[in-house]
Amino acid sequence: MENLENLIINYLEGNLDEVSRRILLNEIKENENTKKLFLELKFIWDSTGNSLNFRINDTDNEFGKFSKKVLLSNVKVYKSNNNIIILRFLKYAAIFIIGFSIAFLLFNNYFIFKSKQIAKYNELIVPKGQRSELVLADGTKIWINSDSKLSYPEKFTNNERKVFLEGEAYFEVAKFKKQKFIVSAGKLEIMVMGTTFNVKNYPEDKKIETILIDGKVSLKKVFARNSIGRDYILKPNQKATFTESDNLLIISDVHKKPIDNKNINLVSVDKKKSIVPEPIIPWKDEVLSIDNESLQDIKTKLERWYGYDIIVNDSTLLQQKYKGRFGHHETIFQVLDAIRLTTPIKYNLTDKLIIIDKR
Amino acid sequence: MDFSDVILKQKLKEGDYYAFEHLFKIYHTKLFSFALRFIKDKQLALEIVMDVFLNFWNHKENAVNINNIESYLVISTRNQCLNKLRSKDKILNYYTDSDLQILEYEIDFYNNDRITEKIFSTELQQELERIINLLPHQQQLVFKLSRIEGLSSEKIAKELNLSKRTVETHIYVALKFIKEKLIFFFS
């Protein structure tokens, strides 16, 4: 026979069977004090729980859904002289790009930087297909990869410099002894002092990766906007991978790889063969690097790098692995043509959507 | 932009969408985690919070008359949760009768304005942190592993080489300790 204490704790943890739940209910009904105790304990249980299972990105998504419901009823659509469809919001002056996925929105080959301030922070949004650079007030240089968002303060006050990253960015942090530099990437906080490193925090990937090039960083897990637990220290040429689902942070070594000219499956149209070792962070130097990756993974990379949506209709194609490097001047079609040299595929382009089939 | 409550309410009344977005982004996660206290289904909780914001938007001209926007939203969420539980449409699959009855008691607990006004306050958070740090060493460790790291008592028992029963007792005693210290909050 379970006592009250066990009933309550097991109920809170969610592993109470129906029979026991009925017993608990009876105890609560019959005794006012028991009811009060249970409710107060549950309150504390709820108030001390880590409820951060919701990321910034999810709130944006929800706001996008909200906007659709509210604004679509107030939208007038008409064509202008140059055959462009324009959305005009009847009552509201501001135009919200983020979170809006109305298919016929214009700005096709046009990148948008939305700069917006909430509580002294600016937000730099880099869409798919673009990359950007930024210099902060302290001289820190940041290269931001496609499909990323960086929140940074205009001025650095307090005794720390803090930025928030979703996506991928490469940092060269200016040395300021009195102010540590912190990158908040989802559930990880990365603290540095005059260092060069790369952070990858795309929500869809479900993991956060940090590679240290030079200097020293320490990482901490985050709970309710406070960092907790121990410090994980990274040394140069080490990579830390944090997987949210199992709460594991693993540190491994990263080596500069020489280009292996023998096993290249993809032939880059750029015939310049370099003997220089491949940098660990190729994207920063505008190189799209594919290193023995499956088409499944390459697809995601291409979508981010070039800003297209890609559908692959044959699942066997997705398992194929490729290796290669492409310069910034090369187009997605050159990449696809390179794949076509070794694999029977055909592709079709409609708007910003590419469909790949088996030939 | 630095919104004081008064300006925010005025802008909401005027239908300033940017102000509403600001409001949404501040409160959405809080309201969602609040709804999750009762509604175990994530999708349903999101729907409820969405309805709360939609209702607020549709009656934004009354924003100026609301004393405390945060409590207003929390209470709305509470009411929506109650409605959903009583309507019994989709939820039949997840909850048994005893579940529903217990949940009604839980939701009723938040009928107390003093509590709803404070649940997301920094004072409460800070108090909780302070009190947790007063716990005796092993209890504190177990409690933090449970609430902060989200580990089940079974996992904690394995980690620390204790019996599951001991872990449960630690958590229970810790909860009671915190409750005693927070007595001002509940009375």
Query: How many distinct folded domains of chain B?
Result: 2
Mean pLDDT of chain A: 73
Q: CATH class of the largest domain in chain A, anyone?
A: Mainly Beta
| Overall outline of chain A | globular
Whole-number radius of gyration of chain B? 19 Å
CATH architecture of the largest domain in chain B: Orthogonal Bundle
β-strand number of chain A: 21
CATH domain fold name of the largest domain in chain A: Jelly Rolls
Which helices and strands appear, and what pairs or packs with what?
The complex is a heterodimer of chains A (359) and B (187).
Chain A (H helix, E strand, L loop, with lengths): L3 H10 L4 H13 L1 H16 L8 H16 L3 E5 L5 E5 L27 E2 L2 E6 L5 E4 L5 E4 L3 E6 L6 E13 L7 E6 L2 E5 L3 E6 L5 E8 L2 E7 L2 E9 L3 E6 L4 E6 L33 E8 H12 L2 E4 L2 H5 L1 E7 L4 H11 L2 E6 L2 E6 L1
Parallel strand pairs in A: 8-9, 18-21
Antiparallel strand pairs in A: 1-2, 3-4, 4-7, 5-6, 6-8, 7-8, 8-11, 9-10, 10-13, 11-12, 12-15, 13-14, 15-16, 17-19, 20-21
Helix pairs in contact in A: 1-2, 2-3
Chain B lengths: L4 H9 L3 H19 L6 H17 L10 H19 L9 H13 L3 H6 L3 H11 L4 H11 L5 H8 L3 H18 L1 H4 L1
